[in-house]
Amino acid sequence: MRKTAGILAAVALVAIAYVTTTWYVGKQAHVTIEQAVAQANERMAQAMVAQPGAGRAKLAVAEYRRRVFSSDVVYSLQLQDESGQRQEFLLSDHLQHGPFPLDAIRTGRLIPMLALSQARLLPSAATQAWFDSLDGDTPVTGRTEVRFGGKAVSEWTFKPLNVAQGGEVLKFSGGTMRASFDNDFSDSRVSGEFDLLDYSMGAEAERIAIDGVRFEYEASGGEGTRMHSTTRAARLDLEVPDDDTVSLRDAVMDVSSEQSGDLASGAIRYDFGQVQLGNRNLGEMSMGARGRDLSMPALSELAQVYDELSARHGPREEEWQLSPDEAALLQEKFLALLASNPVLIFDPLVWKNDQGESSAGLTVELTRPAGSAQAASIDALLQQAVRGLELNLRIEKAMFVRAMAQLQGAADDPEITALAGSLYDEYANRLQAAGLVAFAEQAATAKIVYRDGRIDANGRQMPVAEFMQRALLALLM
């Protein structure tokens, strides 16, 4: 009897300890979720601040019901586009508290966890058509193991979509996504893929189709925030009525950013293994842009002012009628951005075809103008803001002639080819005579450097006024 009582007491103690532990873990999960939501909003704000007018996103916990062994959470993601239209996406999350969630044990996962999350998308105005196409079934499900020490692993599944509404047609193959988090959730790695995204506005309207998409994203926090992402597509087609289809093969988009203190740098690059216009192979193409020493607080304030003006005057900048106070405020925020001496670099645009390649690159160094810059005109302000500039250009004749003939749809027409060759020779000779380009080995090259109010054109020094005069004469003769 005493032995039985001792066993029951031990079982009771274990049960009490487990319930107490589970309750505590559930409480910690709640705190962790709030921290993760705040961190997600911060990351989204940083990603969007460099895109004035691109819209905003906000994640929030719409509902949280915590119990001893589990909790139910509803998340709300609100998106706002350039025109101010809002869309809401709802996600339901069933959390089983650790340290050993029941469903994890059932699947043989005996790893201590803070919580096991099983999430699904809920119907909303933005997603109802997706639910309808699946007869009410949820199109998105996710399973996440939230571990101790700020770690988690997550897997998501997206079901196919085929919707036609008001002439618009959207087809999606469905896809998968995987994510892992570490270092108190400040470090993350995400990868995923889908086979097809096809959207058209009607049978006789524009259509875009993307095949074979794979993406990878990596971010780290700490003293300096870093982010890098790569997206690949086997094919991207853009169809426009009464025009040739533009087809990009083996397309790659590479994006990276880094922030230390208030200053940030970033880069974006596109590479296309093949560019086709109709049935014409235009060759390979790559392009990119970089920026460094960008003040994030100043950029954030400029973006905020821009958004306020856009909301007040509409999304089309060319139609804005700014008051003197509005124009002064916008200029003030722009000048504050220039105070950190940012540098913009347009990586060489490289175009290769079966006859050769050409390239063009530009570096612009900016600074805040001294003196009464706020009273200057826009043209004068821009001149004062540029403290340095370098242009590098190389255009091969055979490549140029081939590209021009292809763009005219007459790659094999000898008359078009001869005309393109004559056009190249005429302008190359004019610019060479003006000292603005050098011509050798059937290629025109130029290196134009501006600094301290003077121009260095291929090693020849001259004032800006003289350079402009030479350029105008060469182009207008």
TL;DR of this structure?
The protein contains 9 helices and 22 strands.
Structural key phrases:
single chain; 477 residues; alpha+beta; 22-stranded antiparallel sheet; 9 helices; 22 strands; 30% helix; globular; disordered N terminus
Tell me what the structure shows.
Among the domains are: 20-159, no CATH class; 288-477, no CATH class. Helix content is 30%, strand content 46%. It is built from nine helices and 22 strands. It has helices at 2-48, 102-106, 128-133, 296-313, 324-338, 378-385, 397-407, 414-433, 464-476, and strands at residues 56-66, 70-80, 86-97, 115-122, 140-147, 151-158, 161-165, 168-172, 175-182, 187-200, 207-220, 224-239, 246-260, 263-277, 280-295, 343-353, 356-366, 386-396, 438-440, 443-451, 454-457, 460-463. The chain is globular. 15% of the residues are buried.
Specify the number of helices: 9
Through-space gap between termini: 114 Å
- Can you tell me the overall shape? globular
| Radius of gyration using CA atoms only | 29 Å
Give unreliable regions as ranges: 1-21, 50-54
Give the SSE map.
Elements: H1 2-48, E1 56-66, E2 70-80, E3 86-97, H2 102-106, E4 115-122, H3 128-133, E5 140-147, E6 151-158, E7 161-165, E8 168-172, E9 175-182, E10 187-200, E11 207-220, E12 224-239, E13 246-260, E14 263-277, E15 280-295, H4 296-313, H5 324-338, E16 343-353, E17 356-366, H6 378-385, E18 386-396, H7 397-407, H8 414-433, E19 438-440, E20 443-451, E21 454-457, E22 460-463, H9 464-476
Antiparallel strand pairs: 1-2, 2-3, 3-4, 4-5, 5-6, 6-9, 7-8, 8-10, 9-10, 10-11, 11-12, 12-13, 13-14, 14-15, 15-16, 16-17, 17-18, 18-20, 19-20, 20-21, 21-22
